[in-house]
Amino acid sequence: MSLVSTLVKFTTKRAAKRFETATQNAAEVQSELLRSMMQKNADTEYGKKYGFGKVKTAEDYRKQVPVITYADIADDMARVTEGARNVFTAEDPVMFAQTSGTTGAPKFIPVTPSSQGGSHSDQMRTWMAHAMKVHPTIFDSKVVSLVSPAIEGYAPCGLPFGSTSGHIYKNMPSIMQRAYSIPYDVFEIEDYQAKYFALMRISLEHDVRFVATANPSSILKMCEKADELSDEIIRDIRDGTLSEDFAIEGRIRDGLKGMFRSDPARASALEAMRSKRGGRLLPGDYWPRTALIGCWKGGTVGHYLDKFGNWFNPDGGTTPVRDWGFLASEARMSIPLSDEGSKGVLTVASNFFEFVPTDVVAAHPNDPAAWTCLTADQVEIGGEYYILITTIDGLYRYDINDVIRIEGHYNNAPELVFLRKGRGMTNLTGEKVSVNQIIEIFQGASASTGAIADHFKAEADEKNNRYLFRVEFGEKIAKGDQARFLRELDERLKKINMEYKAKRDSQRLGNPVMHVMREGWYERGRRQQVSDGKRAFQAKTELLSAEKLQTQFIRPELENVVEMD
Fold it and tell me: At residue 398, what are phi and psi to the nearest 5 degrees?
């Protein structure tokens, strides 16, 4: 066991023990956490407005404090970014987390010293402690982890805003930094292509045992870029250089140059690996001892894991993948304790949670006052709920519009999986198509036809009362097979959604249409998200939209239109 492994095991053990104790007394821990937050922030503007001082129980809390979205507090949060104090929390923030993957203006979430210290650290350490029980070698060599920049700008008050994970990465103790292959400065490279080139040019020199980032599409993109840019990477490793063909900022380039040494032996080995695979460079060859991948496994991104085997296990077998947990810029809400599925244990010691059954929200979508809100000890296994969070950073009864399902219990704390963004179903005529159904039919159609859909999206075409499927195939597909793929999508959706079948059979829904998109469609869209301000590693995929994109935006990307007979 390496020195770093010993250190990680020691520092994570106590956090895992605290988490274990909290889950054994989940209801009491949640009640005490709520009372503590109310008492601590009773004299803030928000606390006085909603009577935090009177709150002793969850029932009191529901009566006193309204359910909110960010729009409800946007004006007051803007004041906080301008320097106003004691608005939501008695503690002054030390930075702001900025949301990614949402529409509209960015949201600024305060990060307090209490959150930045023990709360956030304990959650990640607990994840690591349980992962190392099963995979003890993950810190025996190098780790590849992808984060966004710690500082992406400054609020009017002068505090930085950016990525909390980036902040943690940047400020790790030096002994821990040595375990990670990528120097933090690489994540501050602005050019998308240059960033991926630099991180893979550096990481391909090393024996990597652990790959970790939230979004699995980022891991796939990392692999694709190493393959695409293999000539430049191998040449740089052989010569001990960093190619001048990529737009890497001067200060970052200068800081990286000192870490490179000529390594002809590694370059030759990479050449041999590529030759063995007919010109492809795969992580299964250059990182053969990868013991674990940590990333999201469920929700709208889980289908990307189907492609991991082609990269990490070209000769068969599997590389274990453990879910990264249900988390957002606002809070981490679960900690997975095993490699199985995507379920995680509710973070009962860090946030106060309420749950609203999905049918209740469906009946009163715009009237939170009519919602029945349950506490963590009242949810039922198999139940699907919207989740409301109260955090030590000043979000109170905050609706993040996410739907989860309760899978079981760990001790006395619920285990849950993220299903989808809420209020995100499309519903042209009562069929209620969900993101999960779209994922399932595309996976099934790919498996049954052999035509692999690398990227896809469904859109509700209200004007023509039908669904439009957009797909980018992994390779060229004959037009006859494209038509078969469309038929498969339609039939599979009928099988899993009885209302869709009834509407199709009665012709209340017209025949679906499929747009075959040009190679690189998804990548170009992702690049556009980045240029529009989304983070490269967190740009999220929209798989289901209630609106059809306008023709002028799609025509340049359209290769073929497939209609049913």
Answer: -90, 120
